[in-house]
Specification:
By secondary structure, this protein is an alpha+beta fold. It contains 5 helices and 15 strands. It has helices at 18-29, 43-66, 73-86, 154-173, 180-193, and strands spanning 90-91, 104-107, 110-112, 127-136, 139-148, 197-198, 204-206, 213-217, 234-237, 240-242, 248-250, 257-259, 265-267, 270-273, 280-283. The protein has a 5-stranded antiparallel β-sheet. Helix 2 (43-66) packs across helix 3 and helix 4 packs antiparallel against helix 5 (180-193).
């Protein structure tokens, strides 16, 4: 009787993950850091992760319909909470490590983890990152988008556009049998070419069964370094690009991260599945 695959697909091990496991073993023997099986999603897990990612994308679409000059970031939080719960989901940030809200809203010089507030009003010229993470039936989706409100200056538009291209280049580099370092190696030189800097303290991460899993995805890196990317891994790629220096700071009793020099910051994030045929975007 043929041995069934460990992933629960119902297929024999020989026709399912055997060749992948053998290839991983070769990379490990050559000195590469390789993932353990817990980071390679099973077919059942991928079904759940896809559904969570679909809802996560729908939430961002709902925000896109309503975000406007004059509303508060608390209004955005309410939209996210109401839409998420109405569709059977749970906002992943809510009460995560004490975070008090359902979404992160980072405006202008806020790099990430901006806390929604009725006192933060969106103005013409603002650039805003809306970072949505969603739990659905125990699985996670994660993505963020930049929004430009009203009459935005050219330097801010350029930063938002270049940051999106950084994300695109990072995703393109996330090929099966490449390494996590290849992602940063694709992002950082492009950002620096345009006079920007890359935040290094925060980065992407594995996602799907938990909100934050291994590996950490730094957006600065060297090719062929870091963990091997294997078909079935799910990662969030989310470059944070500053118009000025890369330095950041935190204010006391504030979850939000700011640029140290007060310059603008932008971020885009997609959840990506690593496949033999190339990276597949699950949430955007």
């Amino acid at each position: 009787m043929e041995e069934l695959c460990w992933c629960g697909s119902g297929k024999s091990y020989a026709e399912c993950h055997k060749s992948i496991d053998e290839k991983i073993a070769l990379f490990k023997a050559a000195g590469y850091e390789v993932p353990d099986r817990s980071l390679i999603k099973t077919p059942e897990q991928l079904v759940g992760i896809r559904k969570a990612c679909d809802l996560n994308t729908a939430i961002l679409d709902e925000v896109a319909k309503h975000i406007k000059v004059g509303m508060s970031t608390e209004d955005i939080d309410r939209i996210v909470y109401d839409f998420t719960t109405a569709h059977g989901g749970i906002p992943a940030p809510l009460n995560y490590d004490g975070f008090p809200k359902s979404v992160c809203t980072s405006v202008n010089d806020q790099v990430c983890h901006g806390v929604p507030s009725e006192h933060v009003i969106l103005h013409s010229g603002d650039i805003v990152n809306i970072d949505v993470s969603t739990i659905l039936d125990g699985y996670y989706g994660d993505a963020s988008r930049m929004f430009m409100l009203g009459h935005v200056k050219k330097d801010a538009k350029d930063l938002v556009g270049i940051t999106k291209e950084c994300l695109n280049r990072g995703i393109k580099a996330a090929q099966a049998w490449s390494c996590v370092g290849d992602i940063g190696a694709a992002i950082a030189p492009y950002a620096r070419k345009h006079g920007y800097s890359v935040v290094e303290e925060y980065g992407g991460h594995g996602v799907g069964n938990e909100l934050h899993e291994d590996p950490f995805v730094c957006h600065v890196g060297k090719k062929k370094t870091g963990m091997l990317l294997v078909p079935g891994m799910v990662i969030a790629i989310e470059p944070m690009i500053n118009a000025g220096r890369k330095d950041i700071y935190w204010e006391d009793n504030d979850d939000c991260v700011y640029t140290a020099d007060g310059s603008l910051s932008a971020q885009w994030e997609h959840t990506v599945l690593i496949t033999e045929d190339g990276p597949e975007i699950l949430s955007y």
